[in-house]
Specification:
Strand content: 15-25%
Oligomer: single chain
Shape: globular
Structural class: alpha/beta
CATH topology of one domain: GMP Synthetase, Chain A, domain 3
Number of helices: 17
Number of strands: 26
Radius of gyration: 23 Å
Helix content: 25-40%
Distance between the termini: 51 Å
Largest sheet: 9 strands, mixed
CATH class of one domain: Alpha Beta
Bound molecules: adenosine-5'-diphosphate
């Protein structure tokens, strides 16, 4: 017999009791705001009361459309601990994805950042938003907006009591939700139960995970709409550590000054962010001496990045791999103790891999013949993973379930090798998608848009390596005979920019005579990827304003 189930509430309860003065710091449009865990807990209770007053019931979904700040962090505990489900929406998605997601999730309430109100207005002007009964702007006042009905967060929670009769929830209560647009077709919803988030938090706290200490100062740069900022708000709270939220679209200068001024010891984000910070540090003075560790994931961390942080700043990079479906942390690249006296070169080689499976999870690697491949660092196959915080199905998507799961195993779509020490290395992606600066671009959607063009006979879109963004899309187009290629290129790009976020537009349109095909007549992107496997095609070609974080 056990007592209470595994839920999130005790993490914040403990932090408020044991570390009431440990701070939650936020960079907002109004400047730096800060308070202790005691106030964090109080405001979370106020939020839960406000949700009740707004008629939100157990099992209802409450959405956020927000960057990283303390109010967003309040929803992380306030919503799920009251029995509702927190649905974090990625504001960088195209409007039609946002509409699909809100309609599919049937969100009842939506919290939105002041800086994202305009973006949301575009998407919300649709029947897809019929379920949304109220918008709450994450500020002290409501801006001029067509969102209706709308209130501001401080008025929403302001008069509510600071205690709340938290329900005793079962571990399988849905607590969170995040959509992944990783593969073809519509985004797929992944639900996180209380128990999944609890298990992920506990594993993250271990030395084999991220090893948070109460003395750490933790700054998640990874957006809170990306798989719960990799679970960091939960694990940092469980540790009772000081947390620093970098606010809307932080620039490298903002990150450097937060690290310096708040004494950040641990931070996390996709490679693009850290490449940007290193560039900034090369040109500007900033004291990085407090920084001890950075977890980098979402895309492969270049070995040079790991090396530079180590050699120049004495910062340990933990390369990690995960997915929306795995809540997300699956592997972390820690060195084993026997490697302590290895040469730096050998250590970098290990640390450049995606790493060792987190305790609590299991994986296997399945080759083309359906058999498991040996751990020899050479044979490769698709990684399958299972465990207590790996999802078992997609929300309302039976056809995707058929395709992406086999019994308890999630088929990751990542092609890997595993060496004899157990280090996983991603060598390819079985899924046909492009990941640019940590954000997905659907090659299939771009291809459909291109093929719909009257002067395009055939077209395919391929992800080409890029130093800063890791990958950028390049379109390969077979024009209809007699077409003016320059005019076609311009018209194609204009059409895509009209329908999609600017950073989805291919960096280059290459005209070819025929798209290479496989024996079964499918487009053979491998051939094109091999042919264009260098950066020359896209080097330096993404205009700054096309960056995902600038949208
Ligand atoms: P996240 O928000 O954690 O990036 P997604 O579900 O959007 O989660 O993307 C997961 C996919 O991103 C993985 O299946 C893999 O293809 C890629 N990915 C994540 N981490 C890494 C990494 N460290 N190296 C290479 N690819 C990675």
């Amino acid at each position: 017999m056990v007592g209470a189930d595994q839920t999130l509430r005790p993490f914040l309860w403990r932090a408020a009791k044991l570390h009431p003065d440990s701070e939650i710091v936020s960079r907002t449009a109004r400047g730096i705001e800060r308070y202790g865990y005691d106030e964090y807990d109080d405001r979370t209770a106020q939020l839960a009361n406000a949700l009740d007053a707004a008629g939100v019931e157990s099992g209802d979904r409450v959405a956020t459309f927000c960057w990283n700040h303390h109010r967003h962090a309040e929803t992380y505990f306030g919503v799920p601990n009251s029995g509702a489900q927190l649905h974090t929406i990625n504001p960088l998605l195209p409007d039609h994805h946002i509409q699909y997601i809100v309609e599919n999730a049937e969100d009842r309430l939506l919290f939105v950042d002041p800086s994202l109100v305009e973006k949301l207005e575009g998407a919300a002007d649709s029947e897809a938003f019929e379920s949304v009964e109220q918008f709450v702007v994450m500020d002290e006042a409501v801006p001029d907006t067509s969102l209706d009905p709308v209130t501001d967060y401080e008025s929403f929670v302001g008069d509510q009591p600071t205690d709340y009769d938290w329900p005793s929830l079962s571990g399988d209560t849905p607590a969170g939700m995040c959509y992944t647009s990783g593969t073809t077709g519509k985004p797929k919803g992944v639900e996180y139960t209380q128990q999944m988030l609890w298990g992920h938090t506990m594993a993250t706290l271990t030395p084999q995970g991220l090893a948070f200490e109460e003395s750490d100062v933790i700054m998640p740069v990874v957006p809170m709409f990306h798989v719960n900022a990799w679970g960091i708000p939960y694990s940092a709270t469980a540790a009772g550590a000081k947390q620093v939220y970098p606010g809307p679209a932080p620039e490298p200068a903002d990150l450097a000054s937060l690290i310096e001024e708040e004494g950040v010891t641990f931070t996390a984000g996709v490679p693009t962010v850290w490449l940007g910070l290193l560039e900034y540090l090369a040109e500007n003075d900033a004291d990085m001496s407090s920084l001890e560790r950075i977890v980098i994931g979402g895309s492969a961390a270049p070995e040079s990045l790991i090396r530079e942080f180590d050699e120049e700043y004495d910062v340990e990079v933990l390369h990690a791999w995960g997915m929306t479906e795995t809540a997300p942390i699956g592997t972390v690249s820690h060195l084993k103790s026997k490697m302590d006296d290895w040469s730096k070169e050998d250590q970098y080689e290990k640390r450049g891999k995606q790493g060792l499976i987190a305790p609590g999870l299991e994986f296997k690697v399945v080759g083309d013949d359906g058999e498991e491949v040996p751990w020899n660092g050479e044979d490769f196959g698709e990684m399958y993973i299972k465990g207590p915080w790996v999802t078992q199905s997609y929300f309302k998507r039976p056809e995707a379930n058929e395709q992406d799961f086999e019994g308890e195993w999630l088929k990751t779509g990542d092609v890997v090798t595993v060496d004899s020490d157990g280090y996983v290395k991603i060598i390819d992606r079985a899924k046909d998608v492009i990941k640019s600066g940590g954000e997905w671009i659907s090659s299939v959607e771009l291809e459909n848009a291109l093929m719909a063009h009257d002067e395009v006979a055939e077209a395919t879109v391929v992800g080409v390596p890029h130093e800063r963004w890791q990958e950028r899309p390049v379109a390969f187009v077979v024009p209809v005979e007699g077409t003016d290629e320059d005019a076609l290129k311009e018209s194609i790009l204009a059409q895509i920019r009209e329908e999609y976020p600017r950073w989805w537009a291919p960096d280059e349109v290459v005209f070819i005579e025929e798209v290479p095909k496989t024996a079964t007549g499918k487009f053979d992107k491998k051939v094109l990827r091999e042919q264009y496997d260098d950066e020359s095609l896209v080097a330096g070609s993404v205009p700054e304003e096309a960056a995902p974080d600038e949208e």
